[in-house]
Amino acid sequence: MSRLFHTGNRALQDRFDGRRVADALEARRRRDTFLPEHVAMIEAAPFFFLATAAEGIADCSFKGGPPGFVRVTGPAELEFPDYDGNSMYLSLGNIALAPAVGLLFMAFDGRSLRLRLRGQAVLVEDPDRLAAIPGARRLVRVAVTDIFPNCPRYIPDLAAGEPSAYLPRPDGSQVPPEWKSRDYIRPILPADDPHRSGPGIAEHLG
Question: What percent of the chain has pLDDT over 70?
Fold first, then answer.
């Protein structure tokens, strides 16, 4: 049984011939615990994006701080501070009612890094802990259930002012991403995938 996909995901995977690829990526890429490179990316990040939802209302929020403001506190656990805000408590209010969260870490500096996390969040209001973190009003602790680094091909290089090289060209064609050339992916690409046939991926990538 899949940990990543629900019936809605499955329905579209089957409609568009993607279940084989989805299953292979889940089997090969999804993890239960952090690798050292995941920890390094998270704890160097000056920001991430937080998704929450409750009572049929979804929200996505930018969370920023000094590098290290998100701390990995266990094999599959992290914490980040909640700083002074606008008093709407959109993210925290959602968490209070529905603890399921999604976190997205990205690097826009040409390194092409993207890390998705899913988990269960809880608010922590420990005065001693908060006193050790300048500016923290409270902490959010996330028990991470799914760790999934995935294709970063559309991320722009903001440091260089360059768009992703993988964006569609004027004729609609695209440079294929490296992951589609992997032995466990290439033979099972969807029937209509533009990189399944024609010139080899290695040829496209030079």
Answer: 95
